[in-house]
Amino acid sequence: MVIINVENVTKTFGTNTAVNDVSFEVEKGRIFGLLGPNGAGKTTTIRMINNILAPDTGQININGHVASPFTQKMIGYMPEERGLYKKMKVGEQLLYLTQLKGMKTSAAKKSIDFWLERFEASDWKKKELGELSKGMSQKIQFIATIAHDPDIYIFDEPFSGLDPINSETLKEVIIELKEQGKTILFSTHRMEQVEQMCDDICLFNKGKAVLQGKLREVKASFGKNTINLEFEGDGAFLDKLEDVRINNRSTNFAEIRVLNGQSMQEILKLAMEHAEIHRFERVQPSLNEIFISTVGEDNIKTVEA
Amino acid sequence: MDFNKILLVLKREYLTRVRTKSFILSTLLTPLAFLAFMAIIVVVTISDGEVTKTVGIYDETGVLYSRLVEIDSIRYQNVSQLEIDSIRADVLSGGIDGYVVLSDAFIETSESPTLVYGGSGGLSFIESVEDHLREVVREERLSRSQVSPEVREIFESRPQLKSVKLTEEGEEEDNAVFGAAFGFILGLLIFIGVFGYGALLMRGVIEEKTSRIVEVIASSIKPIELMLGKLFGILALAVTQFGVWIASYIGLSVIAAPVAGMIVNAQLQNLPEDAREAAANNAFDPSALEQFVVDPSIFLYFFLFFFIGFLIYAGIFAAIGSAVDSEQDTQQFMMPVMIPIFIGYFLNLRVMENPDSTVSVIASLFPLTAPINMISRIAATEVPFWQIGLSLLLMIGTFAGLMWLAAKIYRVGILMYGKKPSYKELAKWIRQG
Question: Mutating which of B4, B200, B219 best tests the A interface, going by the most A Cβ atoms within 10 A?
Answer without folding.
Answer: B219
